Amino acid sequence: MARIELKINGQDRQLDADPQMPLLWALRDLLDMTGTKYGCGRALCGACTVHIDGEAARSCSIMLGEAQGREITTIEGVSGPVADAVVGAWRELDVVQCGYCQSGQIMSAITLLSKNRKPSDEDIDASMEGNICRCGTYQRIRAAILESAKKIGGDQ
Amino acid sequence: MTRHTDAPESLSRRRFLKAAASTVFILGFYVPLGRRTASAQTPPSETPAPNLFLKIDSDNIITVISKYFEMGQGVVTGVATLLAEELEADWSKLRFEFAPNDVATYNNLVFGPVMVTGGSASMAGSWMQMRKVGAAARTMMIEAAAKKWKVPEAELRAENSTVVHTSGKSATYAELAADAMQLPVPQDAPLKDPADWKLIGKNVPRLDSAEKTDGKALFAMDVKRPGMLTAAIAHPPLFGAKVKSFDATASEAIPGVEEVVQIPAGVAVLAKDSWSALRGRDALKVEWDTSGAETRSDEQIFAEYRQQAQGEGLVATKRGDAGKALPSAAQKLTAEFTFPFLAHTPMEPLNCILDFDGDKAEMWSGCQLQSIDEHVLSEVLGIESKRIRIHTLLGGGSFGRRGNPLGDWVAELAQIGKAMKSRAPVHLLWSREDDIRGGYYRPIVLHQLEAGLDDSGNIAGWQHKVVTQSLFTGTPFAALMVKDGVDHSSVEGLADTPYQIDNFNVRVYNAESPVPVLWWRSVGHTHTAHVMETVIDELARMAGRDPLQYRLELLPEARDREVLQLVAGKSGWGGSTGENRGRGIAFHKSFGTRVAMVADVSIDEGDFTVDKITAAVDCGVAINPDVVTAQIEGAIGFALSTLLRNRITLKDGRVQQSNFHNYEPTRIREMPAVEVHIVQSAEPPSGIGEPGVPPLAPAVGNAIAAATGKRMYAMPFSLKA
Ligand code: FES
Ligand code: FES
């Protein structure tokens, strides 16, 4: 057990926890932020994707000790024009089915579009490849990313 | 869905009714159930039953109570559409909630008496019922306004959850609710003319999109109860093995681990959080008694199935005499098809929460089979069903897995609840490894067949054997599906093929294994469609005919031909595909729905890529065309992994796969472009959650054959051998 200081969605949070505990379980079980999902626990599915210092990261495979002092953003805390465009496009196109993978998909899509306002199909494949959707919503995920790109002016 | 982790009792039915009565319009009345869905056995629900399907709050928000479980298929949107259409409800103010476990009220009209979501039957079951509820409520609102304003009903109309008079005077449903509640419920309120539909057939937005895009959607995985412990179970390494002894010293030394209990399913570690429970489970030392366990490899199982197919088996279909017709056939085809075990791997691993005080119990679960789960809890906990409250939550996928007639993981939860010393609420968490190794697979299936053509290329005879484990035998649904030992689900889509084949004999061989098996999205059609459509395609080529024309000539029903013609037209069937490319076609009817697909594939270095799927669908009235389209797109993404690579294999009885690295679902890069075309229809709606799965494999397989000459007799596909 140790005192862990985290910066999550712009807020300082303190925890008494094992520094070895994966960030995923700390978010879900200790901080009651359940939008970030468990799917595999081994960085294979992307359901647990969060942003750490602006980069998409698999929270199931990052320990609390490593997450200390870094800027963590979860689905509950995303904001800004890119996030708005992505979430808006996801809703307009009714991307979701069961929805369980979608927090992770959205987090990965936001990272992609934050760095690349006009992603090609290949860019989308490369950035989204780590996010499994068992319901098979990939066609709409791709369409929603392209739609978001339009909204943020990336296609001009 | 709203987060109700803090006030679970507020959802208990009695409290709900009482709370509702003060502020809300409750529609509880007798709906005469349509004869169309009546089953021969006449379950008790065939007599009029009280129904409770909507409430209206003081802000005119209408909440539809869905007896169907949402696992991604869009069912709550569909149910709400039907109700809102007749009610003239304002869609922007519509919400949903899941019904409590109460089979008398929330019976499944297709399979009942049982509370279940499945068989792609929810829209068929809702089609009359939900519209009648909506029409009755609308009529009552109008009548209430007529009385209040002392005007004739003919001068009133309902729109946007409001009743409006010709004078311009209006009142919201919320304002009229108290008066409307006093009125008798009309038994045959007229349904709207389809020409006046505003929601049915339109692309109404999904009701669950917002909460599933901001992290607020509540799955069982997200439920928190005060003092809740998390449990992880060490399951046997072999199917059928049992605990001999265990040593929990190392587990108990892990901070956070509270208790370790032996249960019939294995050894459960209870801890303060998920991570500690999973670590505690990994630290257990368990000795297993493996007598009676499955120790075969899957190759051995196939070898034994081939042996078994030498025997007599059971007759599933006998039309004419294929044995007589085949010897004189001009051309013959013999083929063997193999299908592996498949895991469902819903994105949300199985999990559920129990709060049991020794006398009554509450469970939170992505619950697909409320009646079974309630029964399982009652049996294991030793309390009456009426002391059990099930809270159904959104499900992170199912594909059949959550609708287990044995309620395997719910039984485990109850076993833990009974065995644990503390009375804390407990969350049973399956890891992905538990999920992939946990059995209840689509069973291994072996097909062997011989088919012959006469001089003019017509089918002279067809003899067929299917070896597999029965899905329904021994379940409460056996009476629906098993006749004289033949489980219809082993041969559905084959024994009842719509193709006209005069001499057609199908035999079925029931295999036994300790490996538990279960329906998997589209059930028997997962294998029969591939076999039928591959063979028909091959016969067409043998006969020197176009595979589309050949099919059209063998299909007497116009609706069957229409989907094929639609997909052919839209896909450019008959055009050239270019080098190293192939185009294949397939058609299959399942759950009352017809789906045809054309696949375009490219072949490169002994591997294939699916470039495009063009699909045509006839599911009767498409209540929400966009949801229909999404279900076909999703089914393709889902099923593609079984063509590409997915299989569960056993070595000395041990499952060889464990997580998404060696049981890897389709990735975005592999997703083909999908185009879906829907047949305009006025027929009652049929299923859409499952029928997109069956035609994919044969359409792609036939495309590969067109490009390479190689037929895909084994799943997953391989171009190597
Ligand atoms: S749960 Fe972290 S990648 Fe799957
Ligand atoms: S929406 Fe179900 S897993 Fe992606």
Automatic annotation (TrEMBL), chain A:
CDD domains: fer2 (cd00207). Keywords: 2Fe-2S, Iron, Iron-sulfur, Metal-binding, Oxidoreductase. InterPro entries: 2Fe-2S-bd, 2Fe-2S-bd_dom_sf, 2Fe-2S_ferredoxin-like_sf, 2Fe-2S_ferredoxin-type, 2Fe2S_fd_BS, Beta-grasp_dom_sf, Diverse_Oxidoreductases. Signal peptide: none annotated. Residues 2-78 form the 2Fe-2S ferredoxin-type domain. PROSITE patterns: 2FE2S_FER_1, 2FE2S_FER_2. PANTHER family: BLR6218 PROTEIN (PTHR44379:SF2), OXIDOREDUCTASE WITH IRON-SULFUR SUBUNIT (PTHR44379). This is (2Fe-2S)-binding protein. It comes from Microbulbifer taiwanensis.
Automatic annotation (TrEMBL), chain B:
This is Molybdopterin cofactor-binding domain-containing protein. It comes from Microbulbifer taiwanensis. It holds the Pfam family MoCoBD_2. Residues 214-292 form the Aldehyde oxidase/xanthine dehydrogenase a/b hammerhead domain. PANTHER family: ALDEHYDE DEHYDROGENASE. The lineage of its organism: Bacteria, Pseudomonadati, Pseudomonadota, Gammaproteobacteria, Cellvibrionales. It comes from the Bacteria. SMART domains: Ald_Xan_dh_C.
